[in-house]
Amino acid sequence: MISLRENIDLVQSRIENACRKSGRNVNEIKLIAVSKNVPAEIISEAAALGLKDFGENKAQELMSKLDKVTKDARFHMIGHLQTNKVKYLVGKVESIQSIDGVKLAKEINKRAVYNNLTVNTLIQIHTAKEETKFGLDENELEDFLTNACEMNNISLNGLMTIGTFTDDEKEIRRCFTVLRNLRDKFSAYKTENVNLKELSMGMTNDYQIAIEEGATILRIGTAIFGTRSIVN
Ligand SMILES: *Cc1c(COP(=O)(O)O)cnc(C)c1O
To answer: What is the residue extent of each domain of the chain?
Structure first.
């Protein structure tokens, strides 16, 4: 049996240490507990221990948990999202972090207009060496923003990435640096709905590096909930 409390305490103290080491304020950093393959009861338990933000990478699974978890748990969509699932998530999730194209952004905006609300979003950027990861290429961001700056019911708050899955610290750091530099480059690109501040980066194997490189949102699953029985 894993001890949720011990895991959460350990992650939080490691976050604090990494902040101290890099001269950052721990209050600038939001922890999202990635709860894919974790049953609703355990999510509610984690919420009772103080975690409030949970990340899911599949729309279906997220939807199935909405009614089963405690009311104070908030969900973030962090995985690839098909346009035909958007309507189920708009109004139900705290953020959508995985916008990877104009078509998806348009659909989220359309549903947000329909529901008369604003959706918090991040743009996913492909920084890793692996071919299979989703996200815009670095050099596609400007075009994307030109299109998205007229979608007034989505708030584009920053960038998200998944670093290369490797033990090579330099390579991981490179991914996070790419994201930070891109955010800095476009930080002056402000419109009514675009203001890129957030950097969602850092998972169980690399969150300390992500903090050093400026992460404002960490997405941590395994270190909190233990090894998942189903591999994604
Ligand atoms: C699974 C997942 C995470 C968390 O990964 P861990 O290694 O378990 O911490 C973070 N972000 C995304 C997009 C994921 O799918």
So the answer is: 4-225
CA 164 – ligand 1 centroid, Å:
12
Q: How many whole angstroms from 203 Cα to the centroid of ligand 1?
A: 6
Assigned CATH for 4-225? 3.20.20.10
> What is the per-residue DSSP string for the chain?
---HHHHHHHHHHHHHHHHHHTT--GGG-EEEEE-TT--HHHHHHHHHTT--EEEES-HHHHHHHHTTS-TT-EEEE-S---GGGHHHHTTT-SEEEEE-SHHHHHHHHHHHHHTT--EEEEEEB--SS-SS--SB-GGGHHHHHHHHTT-TTEEEEEEE----SSS-HHHHHHHHHHHHHHHHHTTT---SSEEEEEEE---TTTHHHHHHTT-SEEEE-HHHH-S-SS--
pLDDT tens-digit series, residues 195-220: 999 999 999 999 999 999 999 999 99
Quote the pTM value: 0.96
